[in-house]
Amino acid sequence: MIRELRIDRQMRVAGIGVSGQRCGVTLIDRRGEVIRPAIIWMDSRSEPQSERLRACCLEDVLAQNGKMPAAYNADPLEGARMREENVLRLSARVLEAIAD
Fold first, then answer.
1. What pLDDT, in 10s, does the model give residues 73-87?
2. Can you tell me the distance from the alpha carbon of 16 to that of 95, in angstroms, rounded to the nearest whole number?
């Protein structure tokens, strides 16, 4: 990697950072532009929707995707619809990052 990056071997490495992203949803408009910041796994505003899914149709959800409904994976779009109707109306696509 040092060769690929053409780093001067005389320089000392002070640190290396590693990052990752868990589950998240990003709304994209018709031009392919991001409409709002991603709704990530730590966003718990959709917990009421998650509770409804667990109460009414847990077996169906588990059969569909094998995951317990939680605020980050149950229905962030429903939560966005309730809180940011104009943003959801502009959305043409939804990009979802999923960690298994």
1. 666 666 666 677 777
2. 29
